[in-house]
Design brief:
Shape: globular
GO molecular function, one term: acyltransferase activity
Number of helices: 6
Strand content: 35-45%
CATH architecture: 3-Layer(aba) Sandwich
CATH superfamily: Gcn5-related N-acetyltransferase (GNAT)
EC number: 2.3.-.-
Structural class: alpha+beta
Keywords: Acyltransferase, Transferase
InterPro entries: Acyl_CoA_acyltransferase, GNAT_dom, Ribosomal_N-acetyltransferase
Bound molecules: coenzyme A
Number of domains: 1
Order of helices and strands: EEHHHEEEHEHEEH
Pfam families: Acetyltransf_3 (PF13302)
Largest sheet: 8 strands, mixed
Helix content: 25-40%
């Protein structure tokens, strides 16, 4: 997948290290929006750190592990998605997502994650797609539900971040559920 069109004016692409400058600028601009939920948005404070982080995903992808994608709206990098994990042996993958505030509310993440699930399940034989979020992240939870995911349960205090021991909700979608929903 070099480019996958999401809408008339939006597309997703692999977020390769070559995009480090754009991605670092995106993080800088939208850190306040992302920081409550995403530790990497706090840690990646300059272009070299951002490039190294993207390189880690490029190396992971080369090993058939995690992957990261960017979303462009009218030519501007406005968000992204990742397979935080992609584990062929255990047939599981976990999706993570983010958007700039002005790109929210258009279904971009729902479309991008649907494409990722289709690829992971239909083309790569992954059986279980996971989505983790803190209980207070209403927009993230709405995405998981829109994608047809079910709440498996809560990992109590599994996400210590910014001095708070957050619970982590785990949602999942199984291959059989995905096939049922895409037949409808
Ligand atoms: C989580 C986050 C990515 C969700 O973004 P989002 O825009 O709500 O999600 P989508 O792109 O799927 O868009 C869904 C919205 O577009 C609307 N929409 C319009 N067309 C749509 C379509 N074709 N399909 C689905 N939704 C559509 C939906 O009604 C929904 O709007 P609403 O919530 O106002 O009702 C975003 O809020 C974010 O980046 N938050 C900060 C980072 C974060 O929390 N990341 C997740 C950590 S677990």
């Amino acid at each position: 997948m070099l480019t996958h069109r999401l809408t008339d004016n939006a597309e997703m692409r692999a977020l390769e290290p070559a995009y480090a400058e754009q991605f670092a600028a995106f993080i800088e601009r939208h850190r306040a929006h992302l920081a409550p939920w995403l530790p990497w948005s706090v840690a990646l404070t300059d272009e070299p750190l951002t490039r190294a982080w993207l390189q880690r995903y490029a190396d992971e992808a080369a090993r058939d592990g995690g992957r990261i994608y960017g979303i462009w709206l009218d030519g501007e990098l406005v968000g992204g998605t990742l397979f935080r994990t992609f584990d062929v042996r255990f047939s599981t993958a976990e999706i993570g997502v983010w958007l700039a505030p002005h790109a929210e509310g258009r279904g971009l993440i729902t479309r991008a994650a649907t494409r990722m699930i289709a690829w992971a399940v239909d083309e790569r034989g992954i059986n279980r797609i996971e989505w983790r979020t803190v209980p207070g992240n209403a927009r993230s939870i709405a995405c998981a539900k829109r994608l047809g995911m079910t709440l498996d349960g809560v990992l109590r205090e599994a996400f210590p971040y910014q001095g708070v021991k957050h619970d982590a909700q785990v949602y999942s979608l199984l291959a059989a559920e995905w096939r049922d929903s895409s037949r409808r």
